[in-house]
Write a structure and sequence with these properties.
single chain; mainly beta; four-stranded antiparallel β-sheet; 52% strand; six-stranded antiparallel β-sheet
Amino acid sequence: MSETVKLPAKREFDFAAYVCGAAFSADGETAAFALGSGLVKLVTIADNSTREVEAHGGAVLSFAPHPDGVSFVSGGDDGRLMRIGVDGSVAEIGKAQGRWIDALATHKSGGIACGVGKEIWYWAPGVTEPKKLGPHPSTITALDFSPDGSRVAAAHYGGASIWQVRNPASAPRKMEWKGSHVAIKYAPNSKFLATTTQDNAIHVWRLANGQDMQMAGYRTKVKTLAWTSDARFLLSDAADCFVCWDFSGKGPEGQPPVEYGFGDGAGMTGIVAHPDSGFVCGGFENGALRLGDMDSRRDLELRAPADTQKPIRAMAWSPDGWRIAAGAEDGYAVVFDLKNKS
């Protein structure tokens, strides 16, 4: 934006370790940051205090809010899946000896799923032992629940597999496309399933009929995806601006994407979408953070780049959409309060 604007108030922290995950409690009053050191840092918004939790014996590899709303789930390279409460309590959900847990998904209805090698381990609400779904053609790289929580989709070599969690013994629906698939994301209206591939591209299936489409041309591998809350636009990282594929009408295949928010050429390293509106937030390899507005196609620089700043690697919106948490490779972390101006 060219005019002078007041920036949202922010709380900044130096956690001195790679920030690899971020999440909020259901009420938005606790922000949690997962670190490469195996720690989880809990920030209480009311008094700006922090609490340190030893979650894993090695790096935290995956992180998500727990369905109970008052805790978080972390997966580590020690093979443990942990529950971390906002009060600092720690409990083991499951353990896969000798495995990394770097694919994780949770759903507000109560489901928890993680990737263990070629299998999905799925915990139904109130169940202590997981159902094991698979094997898949390769190690699972990413997981996502359908918007209603009835299905869980896994990305792997050769495409994606969709499982009905209420009937895990049934065969999965297979969405096939050659190559390795890295990330996966359901559209909020359940009409589309999107993955990213090692070929610097995005692949999308229309779930009603299995029709698929490919969007290519990215300069690097696409690692994160985000759908706007109305499911009209699919956004991704791996470009130097907000790249937005329009899924209204007949969809984006054969059409150029909407692009805006060009900065200084730095590549985007992550993207998250507002839970209820058309706002999106992108993190960049130079440490910058930009807030985009899909309605006006305008953007606001929340954090400026600098030579000393490291790439942003974790971002999250609070469930009410009024706060943003982000963290970088060098341990920098920030919580923005969009209701208040600095």
